[in-house]
Specification:
The complex is a heterodimer of chains A (247) and B (431).
Chain A: E1 5-10, H1 16-22, H2 26-34, E2 36-40, E3 53-57, H3 63-75, E4 78-82, H4 84-87, H5 100-108, E5 131-133, H6 140-151, H7 163-169, H8 194-197, H9 214-223, H10 228-239, H11 243-246
Parallel strand pairs in A: 1-2, 1-3, 3-4, 4-5
Chain B: E1 4-8, E2 18-25, E3 28-36, H1 43-46, H2 55-60, H3 67-81, H4 88-118, H5 128-153, E4 162-163, E5 166-167, H6 173-185, H7 187-198, E6 210-215, E7 226-229, E8 235-236, H8 241-244, E9 246-248, E10 257-259, E11 265-266, H9 269-276, H10 282-290, H11 303-328, E12 342-350, E13 353-361, E14 367-373, H12 375-394, H13 399-412, H14 417-420
Parallel strand pairs in B: 6-11
Antiparallel strand pairs in B: 1-2, 2-3, 4-5, 6-7, 7-8, 9-10, 12-13, 13-14
Helix pairs in contact in B: 4-5, 4-11, 5-7, 6-11, 7-11, 9-11, 10-11, 12-13
The chains are: A alpha/beta (247), B alpha+beta (431).
């Protein structure tokens, strides 16, 4: 069997998720014996339009990106959204609270109209996505798990339980007990609860789980003297594209 | 070659999307520009209206490579707006994290992005065949730096523990002393790194320009300092940064350009080396000597070598910082600071050059104004001036060779284009 051809693409993002792939270091060298990398602009000069699997990082924020993304979809058999910008829109959605004209004016002033921008959207708002690797940034073990599954022709498993479960498994003291807002009870796991482990409330970068128990989360906030407004503000950092889901 | 046209679309092995367009007719340059086509991301707008404690979550996402520097700089700007001075412990932990990011970022650039050019290959994967041990050494050093970042910051890309006035979780003294040993054990690998880069044939080219960096009386300035220009030697306060950094817009770039006294200037490792050479660690100075980097140096390709020198410096500096932290003992610090109305500017050296963040806060701690000036944006005008100067000297070469030389020059600046594409606002009325 010929090796699958894999390509990496980035749209509006910090390219941090591709960097996570580069931090695989020696594992990456092993991986490239199993696949052919057709395109990885951040790391290599060679590029080809012939690929089977496309990892797409970044959200869509310009008209020209829509066409580029559709072309990738046409060429690839499998498209994977890589990281929060691609999976849920992520931090780039913060600009959606303004009119685009206002956003352009704030940054570029008189030359604003020369710099086209459209409201931020995750890539599945434009094309069909086959798999998702969540997080800002992605977790490298999860990247390997998903890639392994794809190479074995299996469906990658995405955790359905909340961050709270992983946090309890690490025996962390609950951040609510410390009077901090945490979105761990409603956010999809897979990050090993890294932020609460370092005493920082979950900001929901991996998106909401299916059927989150929002009323219980709101009760938890109330019980600890915290407000729903504080939680919404925290949720909006990454979840601006789906505010209604949290409310 | 009297007529020459090249459209280099999406320069590879740099962070973000940039193109170079060159058009030469009858031996004269008619067009030469570096188009920055990265999508603008509008961070200065995204921060508006956010609570001061949330800002670092946002600004960290400007860049995956230098997330530590962005987070640190943002927090410093906010602390300055709140009139708050962090403890010595917090400053030392931040410096340790910053040194780790410098090692990580420089090693990534040197081994993975720059080195393949010297071996006639398009990527680090192409070097594995003949230079596997060198590639593995680069990977081991990068892993070391990533893990030091993770020990102090929780993770390297988008650090977690950096907070206003404190760290949300301190590393354990044992973990720090274990790590110190790992750094000491890796000194041999740094010696090998110096030898490896010493043997690369760096292109010869000189163009003296204005060099701008932070400077400090008592240390090689990375974490903080006054702004120094090589032109006058004059030092100004970071809060007056707009007197030194004058941004301007060009239509071919979603990143703004900047100038100071002349029509362009350089920031980054070579600028710091030129401005603050005396304060480098003696081992770093020795490595500069060994690799043929003399002070001052006007060859932008040597920015790569200045990065190696700084990596040696950051190794030694990290060891000293760990010693200081362990001997002073680590205490938990408070988290509740502010809110308060005010304006603050933070400036830090990022691996690619001086980074400025400015924030204004209202009484409730909401951001009413944000301005971020990114190293790569400051370098763009200087890269174009270098290209204007070097292209006429290359015209006797084949087109492919010319393109390689040009790409290598751009790469030597270690540009970070996603960082550079969201710039300062011109005016805002929400105050």
């Amino acid at each position: 069997m010929s090796k699958p051809r894999v390509a990496f693409f980035s749209f509006s993002s910090c390219e941090g998720c591709q960097l996570v792939v580069l931090t695989l270091e020696e594992q990456l060298l092993e991986l490239v014996t199993l696949i052919d990398i057709a395109s990885f602009r951040e790391a290599m000069s060679e590029k080809s339009d012939d690929y089977d699997i496309a990892f797409v990082e970044g959200s869509i924020t310009r008209t020209s990106e829509i066409e580029r993304l559709r072309t990738i979809r046409e060429r690839a058999k499998i498209v994977i959204a890589l990281g929060a910008c691609a999976t849920i829109g992520g931090i780039n959605c913060l600009k959606n609270q303004f009119e685009m004209e206002e956003v352009q004016n704030i940054v570029y002033g008189k030359m604003a109209e020369k710099f086209d921008t459209i409201p931020t959207r995750p890539i599945e708002a434009v094309i069909k996505v086959d798999h998702w690797i969540h997080g800002c940034p992605i977790d490298k073990d999860e990247f390997i798990e998903v890639t392994k599954a794809l190479l074995l022709d299996k469906k990658p498993r995405i955790p359905a339980h909340p961050v709270c479960v992983e946090c309890q498994m690490r025996e962390n003291v609950c951040l609510f007990e410390k009077g901090m807002v945490c979105l761990g009870p409603v956010t999809r796991a897979g990050c090993k609860a890294i932020c609460p482990t370092y005493n920082d409330g979950c900001v929901g970068c991996r998106g909401l789980i299916e059927d989150p128990n929002l009323s219980s989360h709101k009760n938890l906030l109330n019980e600890h003297g915290l407000t729903v407004d504080e939680a919404i503000s925290q949720y909006m950092l990454f979840g601006g594209n789906s505010k209604e889901k949290y409310e | 070659m009297h007529d020459f046209h090249a459209d280099i679309e999406h320069i590879t092995r740099v962070e973000g999307h940039g193109n170079i367009v060159i058009d030469v007719k009858g031996g004269k340059i008619r067009t030469l520009r570096m188009d920055i086509v990265e999508s603008p991301r509008f961070f200065e707008a995204m921060a508006l209206g956010r609570t001061y404690s949330e800002v670092a979550h946002i600004t960290s996402r400007i860049c995956g490579i230098c997330a530590v520097t962005h987070t640190t700089t943002s927090i410093k700007a906010i602390e300055s707006a709140l009139d708050f001075n962090p403890s010595v412990q917090t400053i030392k932990l931040r410096k340790l994290l910053l040194n780790a990011e410098f090692i990580q970022s420089h090693i990534l650039h040197l081994y993975f992005l720059a080195a393949p050019d010297f071996f006639g290959t398009g990527s680090v994967f192409g070097m594995v065949g003949d230079n596997k041990e060198d590639v593995l050494r680069g990977m081991r050093l990068k892993t070391l730096a990533n893990e030091l970042c993770a020990l102090v910051g929780g993770r390297h890309i988008h650090p977690i523990t950096l907070k206003i006035g404190c760290f949300s979780k301190n590393p354990e003294p044992r973990e720090l002393s274990d790590f110190k040993k790992r750094i000491e054990d890796s000194r041999d690998e740094m010696d090998e790194t110096v030898k490896f880069f010493k043997n690369l044939k760096i292109p010869e080219f000189e163009r003296e320009t204005e060099y701008i960096s932070l400077t400090q009386p008592d240390e090689y300035a990375l974490y903080d300092g006054k702004i120094k220009s090589s032109d006058s030697g004059e030092e100004i306060e970071t809060s007056d940064y707009l007197d030194r950094v004058r941004e301007f817009m060009v239509t071919h770039s979603t990143a703004k350009h900047a100038k100071s006294k002349r029509d362009s200037y350089m920031v980054g490792a070579l600028a710091r080396f030129n401005n603050n050479y005396d304060q480098l660690h003696p081992k770093a100075k020795e490595s500069a000597m060994e690799m043929g980097l003399r002070h001052p140096c006007y060859n932008p390709y040597m920015n790569n070598i200045a990065q190696v020198v700084e990596t040696v410096h950051c190794f030694e500096e990290s060891i000293c910082l760990i010693d200081d932290l362990i001997s002073a003992g680590l205490k938990d610090e408070k988290r509740e600071i502010g809110p308060k109305k005010g304006r603050g500017v933070g400036a830090t050296e990022a691996p690619r050059g001086t980074l400025y963040h400015e924030h204004k806060l209202d009484e409730t701690g909401k951001v009413t104004y944000a301005n971020y000036i990114i190293p790569t944006a400051q370098n763009l005008a200087n890269i174009e001036n270098d290209l204007l100067s070097i292209v006429p000297t290359l015209l006797n070469k084949q087109k492919e060779e010319i393109i390689v030389d040009i790409e290598m020059l751009v790469r030597a600046y270690d540009p970070c284009i996603s960082c550079a594409t969201h710039l300062m606002k011109v005016e805002f009325v929400n105050e």
